[in-house]
Inverse folding.
């Protein structure tokens, strides 16, 4: 476990709750940062060994600042993931009016229906995190906030409504990022994350990417595009692939992508935390099958039989 870990703070965020689920994190120095890019830059500068940041949630989708920092700034790799169920409270002062409600945009989005039906007159204020929103309320700069119960309690706020998320089963996925390192050994249920840039002026470029994965039996669990920031129409595609970079079929697929893509950024191989069972290799695509095929080719090249 890295010894100094930055995370999206302040104390009381869902990211902190996720961090505490990582084995060994209680012994690490945990450094709360104001924003996701600042947490990731602490790692790039060497001030911290790793950072835990939100990547996506099951309702609102990806966290754009995290994805943008992963592809636009100097390379980092994900070494672990944590999938955390999230439950929100509305916190403030029991005796006060609620004209402004602060929170992280993803928290506001996940409570949209509750806010619309119960506080349609209030305006929402984006904060850098749910716990930062609780600080705003404690400091009198917003009337209420959407946050974790723990953050409300820490700031002595009243719980105005409990469990206000529109989808009771909502989960958020967090990634532990570090400067590039070799992946830990396969766990048997791993994911490999990539960002690929395709040649935009070639017909079928994205199909070629998918084909490289499909012919090696590599399963895709997520594909998502983000603008590269160069100009309209330029996108990076984020791929989560079932398997580990040490698996033969993943290695072959990566080599294929390297040949057909304008650029491939490797974002790490790490154990899955979704609770989903591993997907077995399709027939003919196990490590043993690749090994057998490459030994056969070597024999043909060496002896012709
Ligand atoms: O703001 C927080 O507490 C975070 O950790 C980011 C976040 C926001 C909303 C849902 C899950 C995580």
């Amino acid at each position: 476990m890295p010894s100094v870990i930055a995370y999206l703070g302040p104390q009381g965020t869902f990211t902190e709750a996720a961090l505490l689920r990582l084995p060994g994190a209680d012994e690490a120095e945990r450094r709360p940062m104001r924003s996701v890019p600042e947490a990731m830059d602490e790692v790039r500068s060497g001030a911290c060994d790793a950072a835990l940041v939100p990547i996506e949630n099951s309702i609102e989708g990806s966290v754009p600042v995290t994805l943008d920092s992963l592809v636009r700034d100097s390379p980092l790799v994900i070494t672990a993931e944590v999938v955390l169920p999230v439950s929100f409270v509305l916190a403030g002062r029991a005796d006060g009016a609620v004209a402004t409600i602060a929170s992280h945009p993803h928290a506001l989005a996940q409570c949209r229906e509750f806010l619309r039906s119960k506080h349609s007159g209030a305006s929402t204020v984006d904060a850098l995190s749910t716990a930062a929103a609780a600080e705003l309320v404690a400091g009198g700069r917003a009337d209420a906030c959407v946050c974790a119960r723990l953050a409300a309690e820490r700031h002595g706020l009243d719980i105005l409504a409990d469990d206000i998320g529109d989808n009771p089963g909502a989960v958020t996925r967090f990634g532990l990022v570090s400067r590039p390192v070799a992946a830990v050994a396969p766990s048997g249920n791993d994911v490999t994350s990539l960002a690929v840039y395709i040649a935009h002026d070639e017909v079928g470029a994205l199909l070629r990417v998918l084909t490289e994965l499909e012919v090696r039996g590599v399963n895709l669990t997520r594909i998502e595009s983000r603008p590269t920031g160069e100009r309209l129409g330029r996108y990076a595609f984020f791929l989560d692939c079932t398997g580990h970079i040490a698996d033969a079929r993943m290695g072959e697929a990566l080599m294929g992508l390297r040949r057909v893509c304008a650029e491939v950024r490797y974002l790490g191989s790490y154990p899955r935390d979704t609770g989903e069972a591993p997907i077995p290799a399709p027939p003919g695509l196990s490590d043993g099958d690749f090994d057998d095929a490459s030994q056969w080719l070597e024999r043909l090249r060496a002896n012709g039989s």
Remarks:
- The two ends are 49 Å apart (CA to CA).
- The longest helix spans residues 287-303.
- The chain has three domains: 1-86+170-181, 88-162, 182-305.
